[in-house]
Amino acid sequence: MKKEITVTINGEAHTVEVEPRLLLVHLIREQLSMTGTHIGCDTSSCGACTILVDGKSIKSCTMLAIQADGKSIITVEGLATVEGLHPLQEGFKENHGLHCGFCTPGMMLRAVELLEKNPNPTEEEIRWGISGNLCRCTGYNNIVKAIQYAGAKIRGEELPSTEPEFV
Amino acid sequence: MIPAPFEYDAPATLDEAIALLEKHGDEAKILAGGHSLIPMMKLRFASPEHLIDINNIPGLSYIKEEDGYLKIGAMTRESELEESEIIRSKYPIFTDASKLIADPQVRNMGTIGGNIAHGDAANDHPAVMLALGAEVVATGPGGQRVIPIDEFFFGFYMTALQPNEILTEIRIPSIGAGTGNAYHKLERKVGDYATAGVAAQIAVDANGVCTYAGIGLTNVNATPLRAARSEEALVGKKLSEETIAAAAQAASEDCNPSTDLRGSEEYKRSMVRVLVKRMINKASDRI
């Protein structure tokens, strides 16, 4: 039996009818047509479907849409503002933090919570913090740098160099 | 992957949740963090007809010291355990374990109660509970009952919880002076189940004689396993290299790992031996 739920996504309230078994990622991508949230492994391993629910990063392939009733969600579509890119988006852009981009929305949303809890993480804390997000293109060095860049920007400090490293 | 259809309720009180369990019996499952249950439902390994979501019930998430116990509400998330000051300062075994459970996003959802109530020997908290001598509180239509952890795990996904009961609290005897604990699991990659995992709690008196030893093993038996002979090998003795080696050897002999993609039986026994030794040493170092 379908039930009516109201979910606020990127500041906009959506009232929809859902079957209890509908996964949150399917609601977002298919019913609400926001395809920035990706489905990778579909087994809560890869992190491509990571979004923020009431400020906490979660894997939306392993949460029911009906569980999000009354909650506030941020997806990658909600990161940029009229003023421009979110510091994490800028960090990924400046540091070549992506190749194919499939993992990037999940990486950035995970990093939003990471930086909120720990505004100045060490490299190890960043790597541990994104251990639930898999990237199969770049390796993680530039992703770590992108998050460090965003951290510096959020803290209002001088931005680290974005010159690529040749090794 | 999409779960089979089910009916869904999200009661606001524990009484309502228990009434729903009474009504639906075996057809109902409790939804806590959902990170064991929803994957199983997506794979159609589980197809409950009713899902009772207890996430909206207030008062099931807390970490407090009271009446000689550390009491943890069943709906306490792994990430809350990781960030708790009481846990960090006094019960580092939880910090060891939480950090190794799945990954940060899963830990934002996964609960300690769900991890235990699932009855999976591959989960990490059960071995920790064995080491700490915990009790779990089950709440049903007749009120609460306290179950010692040694009487909780029956078999693969089988626990002492009745179909009309909900695990609501975990009680761990407060640790006194002279006590240390530690947990580690060998995992192939982040988010994997343990190849082998060992939890240890050790207490010694002023003369360095071991007065308490709790050793629990993860994923090397059909149920979470207490390494009873290892504990006996330690209690009443000084923690010498020989004593610890004997305890480690006993655990490697008494566990029942199966050969699978994580390693052969021999390899897992060997890892149990190594980890028991390391965790006893780490627990003693933390005294």
State the shape of chain A: elongated
Rounded to the nearest angstrom, the distance between the terminal CA atoms of chain A is 58 Å
CATH architecture of the largest domain in chain B: 2-Layer Sandwich
Say how many strands of chain B there are.
Answer: 14
Q: Give me the CATH superfamily of the largest domain in chain A.
A: Beta-grasp domain
Summed over residues and divided by their number, the pLDDT of chain B gives a mean of 96
Major beta sheet of chain A, specifics?
Answer: 5 strands, mixed
The figure for the number of domains of chain A is 2
Task: Supply database-style keywords.
heterodimer; A: 167 residues; alpha+beta; Ubiquitin-like (UB roll); DNA polymerase, domain 1; five-stranded mixed sheet; 31% helix; elongated; B: alpha+beta; Uridine Diphospho-n-acetylenolpyruvylglucosamine Reductase, domain 2; Uridine Diphospho-n-acetylenolpyruvylglucosamine Reductase, domain 3; Enolase-like, domain 1; five-stranded antiparallel sheet; four-stranded antiparallel sheet; globular
What report would you give on this structure?
The complex is a heterodimer of chains A (about 170) and B (about 290). Chain A has helices at about 25-30, 85-95, 105-115, 125-130, 140-155; strands spanning about 5-10, 10-20, 50-55, 55-60, 70-75. Chain A is of the alpha+beta class and about 170 residues long. Chain A has two domains: about 5-80, Ubiquitin-like (UB roll) (Roll), CATH 3.10.20.30; about 85-155, Orthogonal Bundle (DNA polymerase, domain 1). Chain A has a five-stranded mixed sheet, with helices on one face. In chain A, β1 and β2 form a beta hairpin. In chain A, α2 (about 85-95) crosses α5 and α3 (about 105-115) packs across α5 (about 140-155). The longest helix of chain A is centred in the C-terminal third of the chain and has 15 residues, at about 140-155. With about 290 residues, chain B is α+β, with helices and mostly antiparallel strands. Chain B folds into three domains: about 5-55, Uridine Diphospho-n-acetylenolpyruvylglucosamine Reductase, domain 2 (2-Layer Sandwich), CATH 3.30.43; about 65-175, Uridine Diphospho-n-acetylenolpyruvylglucosamine Reductase, domain 3, CATH 3.30.465.10; about 180-285, Enolase-like, domain 1. Chain B is about 35% helix and about 25% strand. Chain B has eleven helices and 14 strands. Chain B has helices at about 15-25, 35-40, 80-85, 85-90, 90-100, 105-110, 110-115, 125-130, 230-235, 240-255, 265-285; strands at about 5-10, 30, 50-55, 65, 70-75, 135-140, 145-150, 155, 160, 165-175, 180-185, 195-205, 210-220, 225. In chain B, β8 and β9 (about 160) form a beta hairpin. In chain B, α10 runs antiparallel to α11. Chain B is globular, with a radius of gyration of 19 Å. The interface of A and B includes residues 59 and 64 of A.
